[in-house]
Amino acid sequence: MAKKKIVWSVRAQQDRLEILEYWINRNKSTDYSEKLFKLFKESAALISEHPEIGKPTDIAGIRIKIVRDYLMIYQEQASQIDILLIWDSRKNPEELGETIKEEI
């Protein structure tokens, strides 16, 4: 199977930036943020090669890839993978479904 192009939504880019900035401010170091950035990048590459790797959700066509304490929410299209958002798994899970629907 050929790799599919990864497209980060504006929301997913903002989520990723906020997460990385949070850890820089909290730890007073970029070390952990750099590790997380690398994990997000590696996970996106893995999804690109194997879109079915994520866990299916109750919402048709939407899958979740776990990255540490975060959920990468994505949707497979014919020629690309849309990463819709990154969700902190420590947040209220009841809000996740509505948030995903807003991004579709």
Automatic annotation (TrEMBL):
<dbReference type="InterPro" id="IPR035093">
    <property type="entry name" value="RelE/ParE_toxin_dom_sf"/>
</dbReference>
<dbReference type="InterPro" id="IPR007712">
    <property type="entry name" value="RelE/ParE_toxin"/>
</dbReference>
<protein>
    <submittedName>
        <fullName>Addiction module toxin, RelE/StbE family</fullName>
    </submittedName>
</protein>
<keyword id="KW-1277">Toxin-antitoxin system</keyword>
<dbReference type="Pfam" id="PF05016">
    <property type="entry name" value="ParE_toxin"/>
</dbReference>
